[in-house]
Amino acid sequence: MPGTGPQPMADLLTVNNLKKYFPVKGGLLQRTVAQVQAVDGVSFTMKPGETLGLVGESGCGKSTTGRSILRLIPPSSGTVHFEGRDVLAARGSELKQLRREMQIIFQDPYASLDPRVTVGDSVAEGLKIHGIGTAVEQRDQVRQVMERVGLHPEQARRYPHEFSGGQRQRIGIARALVLQPKLIVCDEPVSALDVSIQSQVLNLLNKLQGEFGLTYLFIAHNLSVVEHISDRVGVMYLGKLVELSDRIELFRNPLHPYTAALMSAIPVPNPRAKRHRIILQGDVPSPINPPAACRFHPRCWLAKEICKEVEPPFEEKVAGHWAACHFSDQVSREPTASTKQ
Ligand code: SF4
Question: Which of 95, 239, 275, 320: CA 20 to 30 A from 251?
Answer without folding.
Answer: 239
